Amino acid sequence: MIYYTKNRNRGMKMADITNIAWQDFARLSLEEKVPYLSRGDGDAMPYHTLFAQQFDRGLLERLCTLANRIRFINKSKEGALYLKNVLAHKRAMLYFSQPSSRTFLSHLAACQILGITTGSVRDAATSSEFKGESHEDSIRTFSSYFDMIIMRSPEQGLAEKMAWELSNSERPVPILNAGSGKDQHPTQALLDIYTLIRSFETKGGIDGRTVVFCGDLKRGRTVRSLSYLLTNFNDIQQVFVAPGELQVPDDVTDILKEKGVRYEIGNDLKAATKTADAVYMTRIQDEWDNAKGESAKIDTRAFKFGAEELALLGKDAIIMHPLPRRDEIATCCDHDPRAMYWRQMRNGMWIRAALIATVFGFEKTIMECGY
Ligand code: NCD
User: Fold this and answer.
1) Please, how many CA atoms are within 13 Å of residue 117, restricted to the half-sphere of its CB?
2) How far is the CA of 307 from the centre of ligand 1 (A)?
3) Catalytic amino acids?
4) Domains of the chain and CATH, by start
5) What is the DSSP string of 166-199?
6) Nearest Cα residue to atom 11 of ligand 1
7) CA–CA separation, 240 vs 215, rounded Å?
8) Contact 123/177 with Cβ under 8 angstroms?
9) d(CA 247, CA 264)
10) H/E element holding 121?
């Protein structure tokens, strides 16, 4: 049951998250939740950014175009100063109750580019949650002082619950999911798509490519979010290479089946590398082990990218990794021009700046400014 309301300004019908009980909202499929999370002004761009299903090709291309624009404007001092003024009237809270380096720092840097002042909690032990405060109360506290909450949590679905809570409060500030449990990592998937688009821009584009995912595909949230975003493009084949115990879960392949996307499941990284346009390596996510040492018992030797794999990789293909890495990409690959993980990391800052500017309604202003 979708509850629609008439948008005051444009007479357009939008699903209204303030008209639906949490239990009813929670029961909806991700696709059914999407209209409740958009800006509500007739634009499908997310207000709360919670999962990959909120983005279609048009929205992804808009964000990549804006990211390119921001990156260009930021090159000159005048341009950088202009950008620093765009959101100087906004404050953002970075609420990270799970370890993070890149996601935290790139969101922070994105805020700095746009002039947003930030506050942060990086460890629940330093916030009142440690005294037994509920997530709901913590988030309402943050929303009293800040205009956006960028949050990472080990709990699947928590960002969604917090988005519903805030939208139904007197301070309905937007939530940006910076990683929710083993579930989703939408902004990582945005930067991965941005990296793919940029890498193939002058080489015939992203359509028709083969993307190989390798490593811990069962518990890696970046894989779930990126696999979904790739379905927005034409004829992209997805290949999942992992030990049986860590193979991609059914919910990911069910979507591919439903959308008629070609995919393969296997365990031969060398063979997959030969056919790949992009190899997306991932770390073993042993923090999710049910029993101590569970992952260490899995033979992962065949799921590492080294000199032999590099020799098999096509000349225009790229190597990606959300990072942090352990030994799944040998350091001898680091200076190869096809190693895209360093650029991927920096792309994260630009695409997050584009997303934040868009959430606050400043996409057009930046696109049309004179710089
Ligand atoms: C990933 C994450 O946290 O899911 N890291 C990141 O955000 N760049 C991947 C990982 O931790 O392996």
Assistant:
1) 6
2) 24
3) 102-103, 131, 152, 185
4) 4-184+348-361 (3.40.50.1370), 186-287+294-340 (3.40.50.1370)
5) HHTSS----EEEEEETTTB-HHHHHHHHHHHHHH
6) 324
7) 9
8) no
9) 11
10) strand 117-121
Phi, psi of 216 (to 5 degrees): -90, 90
Q: Dihedral (C-alpha) 190, 191, 193, 197: value to the nearest 10 degrees?
A: 130
Only one residue has tokens 């065949």, namely 302
Q: Is 325 in the pocket of ligand 1 (CB under 6 A)?
A: no
**Residue predicted with more confidence, 256 or 6:** 256
How many CA atoms, within 13 angstroms, populate the side-chain half-sphere of residue 61?
8
Residue 345 alpha carbon, nearest atom of ligand 1: 8
- Ligand 1 centroid vs 170 CA: distance in angstroms? 33
- As a whole number of angstroms, the distance between CA 94 and CA 178 comes to 9
Return the axis-axis angle of helices 250-258 and 221-230, rounded to nearest 10°.
0
Give the whole-angstrom CA distance, residue 281 versus residue 302.
12
- From atom 12 of ligand 1, which residue's Cα is the shortest distance away? 283
Compute the distance between CA of residue 14 and CA of residue 41 in angstroms, rounded to an integer.
8
Whether pTM > 0.90 for this model: the answer is yes
pLDDT at 7: 42
Chain mean pLDDT for the chain = 95
Amino acid at 14: M
Q: What is the mean pLDDT of residues 304-327?
A: 98
* Token couple for 217: 């595909």
